[in-house]
Specification:
- There is one protein chain.
- By secondary structure, the chain is mostly beta strands.
- The chain has a domain of about 150 residues: Jelly Rolls.
- The protein contains 3 helices and 17 strands.
- The two termini are about 25 Å apart.
C-alpha cells in the first residue's frame, strides 16, 4: 500500500521541481478536494481522460525505487467520440534511483524528452510477438537522427534531447547525475512524454508483473485528487 503522505509529499515536490525547470502546470493541478467537489460536467474531459496527478508504486511497496510521479496535461480516448484528440502529453518527475517497472505499450508510440538539467537514462529491450524480451538490435531515433542499438543497452539523453519509442519496445528510464535539482538530499531530473493517446488501464504490459494504480493507505488527509480518484460531477 502506498501511503497518502508519500503521495502528498511527492506532488508538492513535483510542483517545485517542474516550476524550477520552467514547466508551468494548468490551474486544475492545484485544486484541492474541496474545490473539485464544486466542479460540474464542464470538467468531464479532465475526469474521463485521466488528466492530472498520477502517483504510483506499481504495487511494489518500494516507492523510492519502483514508482512514478507524473502529471498528464492532455489526452484523448479511443472509445469516446467526445474526446477525439489523437495525442497525449505528460510531465514526469525523475528522482535518482527511482524508475517504473520494465514494460511496453501495445499501441502507444511515445517521445521521451529530457526537460530538466540532469540526464535521463533509458534501458531499451526488443520484444518478440508474445511480449518476451529478446536479443538482437533496436532502431531508435534521438532528436530525429536514426541509430541502431543493441537490445538491452542504455541511451542517455542530455537536457533538451528526446528519443522516439515504437510500440512494444520494453523500456525503463530514470534521472541520473548532471545538474538535477536537489531536495532533501535527492537529485531530481524531469522528463516529458509526448505520445499517441495514452490508455493506462489497458495498454501497459509489465514484463515481471505490476499493478498500474496503487492501493492507498490513508495515513493523512488527501491534498489533491489523483487522476483515477476524481469525484463524479455534482457528487
Amino acid at each position: 500500500m502506498l501511503k497518502r503522505s508519500i503521495i502528498n509529499r511527492s506532488i508538492e515536490i513535483a510542483m517545485k521541481i517542474f516550476s524550477a525547470s520552467g514547466l508551468h502546470l494548468p490551474e486544475f493541478a492545484f485544486w484541492s478536494p474541496a474545490e473539485w467537489e464544486k466542479r460540474g460536467r464542464e470538467c468531464d474531459e479532465i475526469r474521463d481522460c485521466m488528466l492530472g496527478w498520477d502517483v504510483t508504486d506499481f504495487g511494489s511497496g518500494n516507492f523510492s525505487e519502483i514508482g512514478r510521479t507524473l502529471f498528464t496535461l492532455r489526452n484523448g480516448r479511443h472509445d469516446d467520440p467526445r474526446y477525439p484528440k489523437s495525442y497525449a502529453e505528460k510531465f514526469i518527475l525523475d528522482p535518482e534511483g527511482q524508475r517504473a517497472p520494465a514494460h511496453f505499450h501495445r499501441s502507444k508510440r511515445e517521445d521521451i524528452i529530457n526537460r530538466g538539467n540532469g540526464f535521463i537514462v533509458l534501458e531499451l529491450t526488443a520484444s518478440d510477438p508474445e511480449g518476451n524480451p529478446t536479443g538482437g538490435t533496436l532502431q531508435v531515433a534521438v532528436d530525429g537522427v536514426s541509430r541502431t542499438i543493441d537490445s538491452g543497452s542504455r541511451v542517455a539523453l542530455k537536457p533538451g534531447q528526446s528519443i522516439c519509442l515504437a510500440p512494444r519496445t520494453i523500456h525503463q528510464f530514470w534521472g541520473e547525475g548532471g545538474d538535477g535539482i536537489v531536495i532533501d538530499g535527492v537529485r531530481y531530473g524531469v522528463s516529458g512524454e509526448v505520445s499517441s493517446v495514452c490508455d493506462d488501464r489497458t495498454d501497459n504490459v509489465f514484463i515481471h508483473g505490476a499493478s498500474r494504480f496503487p492501493g492507498i493507505d490513508e495515513d493523512e488527509p488527501r491534498r489533491y485528487y489523483l487522476c483515477q480518484e476524481y469525484p463524479a460531477a455534482g457528487a
